[in-house]
Amino acid sequence: MAKPDSQWYRLDNAGILYSALQREEYSAIYRFSALMTEPVRPAALQNAIDRVLPRFPSFAVRIRRGLFWYYLEPNTAPGPFLKADVANPCQPVRFREDNGWLVRFYYYRNRISLEVFHALSDGAGALIFFRTLLAEYLRQTGISVPAGNGVLDLEEPPRKDELEDAYARYAGRHALGLRRMPKAYANTGTPEPFYTFHVTMGFVPLEKLREAARSYDASITEYLSAVLIHVLLEKQRREHPHKERPVALAVPINLRSWFPSETVRNFITTVRPSIDPALGDYTFPEIVSQVRHYMKLHIHRQELQAAFTGNVRFTKNFFLRAVPVFLKNPVMALNYYLFGVRPYSCTYTNPGAFTVPPEMAPHIQGMEVVLGQATVPRCHCASISYGDIMEITFAGTQAETDTERDFFRFLVREGIPVRIESNR
């Protein structure tokens, strides 16, 4: 397998942030899991990992701290090694552990799980890696799976476009600066002892969910965002605060739909649908309408480009680049709290449908996704669909369960059956 052209990689715009933020109280880790139709064969899966990693050099790295910035370099240490699964997934990455590997692989019965440090890749890039890994695993068990249909060819050297910093490539002339957004309803709860990570999954029929969304003239992402905002508005009201604050979501957007790129690194930005109860009460159909129109108004090429261009300029600022990294990290952490935590009540991400070549489909029965712990004791929400099932996960370190309980109860009242699994 060809080696990457460069012996080190600059972190992209998102990678710089996640590297500066990483600590024990925050996990910039996310997990994808595939439920296979047969029990996992560990030796075959480890062989697949060893075969696939050289094809994805931006995953086969370790992080180093330079004087001014973190950077990535190829990891030549043994591993990463397949492990039996753990009760609390998405544990914070520790740069000096696991031989410096920033990807993890687990198995349990018929489940194969991949965990990725967000500085390496976003969900879309990681799913390309995961799909290719699952294809090679099936080959190792005697099933023929050709390259193509989202499965990369392991005999082909890594393409330069797969490793590009797409933020830098598409940064434009116009930029949005850091804008002060109103403080949102915090949606925090009682913190659990370290490290207790609660994961609750709901499995719903995709067609029923699609019918419900269509009844409001909304997409599935718009509909589920509205459901989450609705239950958080009700939750805030039950708490009788002195002042009710806006309920706002951070919803990641895959930029590859607007700016063509084959990168398997990060290339996302976020939008902020919200409802302000100070303006009065909203019915659920009104919330869906507000979310739907917000998405259509703000998700377009010009605004998305201006948003990430501002971030690119921030990281390229001459004075910031000259500040040592140990002084830079606290400043970036404070900025993240002010602009990435306080203005939001929850994160909701939906990478959409996980598709595979027809040769793979009979051997995979479902998909799951989990986001790691937030910087504060609140839950994140994520969803992914495979076949005719949408899986929706709430995960966090708070003791209370009211957000996920109210969310799934609302779906049931909407006529959408839900099957629940949890590690609580």
Automatic annotation (TrEMBL):
The organism's superkingdom is given as Bacteria
User: Which SUPFAM superfamilies does this one have?
Assistant: CoA-dependent acyltransferases
* Name of this chain's protein: Alcohol acetyltransferase
